[in-house]
Amino acid sequence: MLDKYAEVIVEVGLNLQEGQRLTISAEMNTAPLVRKVVEKAYQNGCPLVTVMWGDEQLRKIRHESAPRDSFAEIETWIPEGMLASAKAGSAFLSITGADPELLKGQDPELIGIELKTRAKHFKPMSEYITGGSVQWTVVCPPTPKWAAKVFPDLSMDEAETKLWDVMVKLCRLDYDDPVAIWREHLSSLQKRHHHLTEKQFDTIHFRGPGTDLKIGMPKNHLWAGGGDKTTNGVDFAPNIPTEEVFSMPHKDKVNGTVRATKPLNYFGNLIENFNLTFKDGCVVDFSAEKGEETLAKMLETDGNSRQLGEVAIVPHRSPISESGLIFFNTLYDENAACHLALGNAYPSTIKGGTEMSKEELAAAGANNSLIHVDFMIGSDEVDIDGIDAKGNITPIMRGGEWSFEV
User: Fold this and answer.
1) CA dihedral for 289, 290, 296, 302, sign (positive or negative)
2) What is the pTM of this model?
3) Are residues 115 and 257 in the same domain?
4) Distance of alpha carbon 110 from the chain centroid
């Protein structure tokens, strides 16, 4: 199974090119998969794989023991080195399976300072990579503490085994040729996003329990999904698994209220049962049953963190949703439900966006922020309409399922 997983990551996720270097950021508790990916990369002609190891427990120790005035400290050579690696053409892979409650009980103020500092220093690298210069992929293999959160009634070992069994199906690794299955799946998503791009809806309207939200769309917006493409024409899949098609909202044209339908795990802090109210693109009111202080700190990250950077559509009958599980992991939960993202927009989701300056992107409606945080708003009770410039309404989803065939 690890061999199949590594093959899908290298050949579909990264589509690593012969002679291309690879940089991996990984938690130590994912080492078995990391080793398989490294082996597969070298077999595919990669000349050098560099692994940046992390240990989430060290982060917890910092919050428990470090001086309270030290959380704006960061080693700048790490983001600078990764940016240099990207500019040299390396592909990037993130492998993580974080404990959803790693920082439970820690000071939200210090968490906010740490995350803002990290976001500020890593932003140039992030912008370069997500701007289409190189391939990048994120995967989250099961880990013990994460599995224990998903299956709290089982022992940690039993929970991890069960989560692996589930993940194999969700990542389509239970086929003889998962690479071929993935390429077919990505092709189906691409047909969906081509259809939505052709429609050029002026507004996307979400309706459901606690949700009545109208999202204005920029002119010449592009829907994406089913993988991405670098500016050099190399196909890749940023997320494994993926079930979404997504685009860029106009940062100043979002109005109404939206209710989250799944918990948000924000760097080891859970935010649950929360609502956001938007006016002219900006969050003007919010509440949460759990983690409201963390939500407040996230919204205060910078001047644009209260605005949207992504709108994504996912059918309710996706494999992840049909598992019936809440994963407390954004990569999986966002692919179980329609979702939005607060913060930075992807330039590739507007025509010519990757060639625009920051000022041109802002004028076109793209949000620019230090954060990009996905939260889930979809369910089998959510309807979505596309509204054109003349006010004509076209169903996109009813009861959480697609209203059109491709």
Assistant:
1) negative
2) 0.89
3) no
4) 24
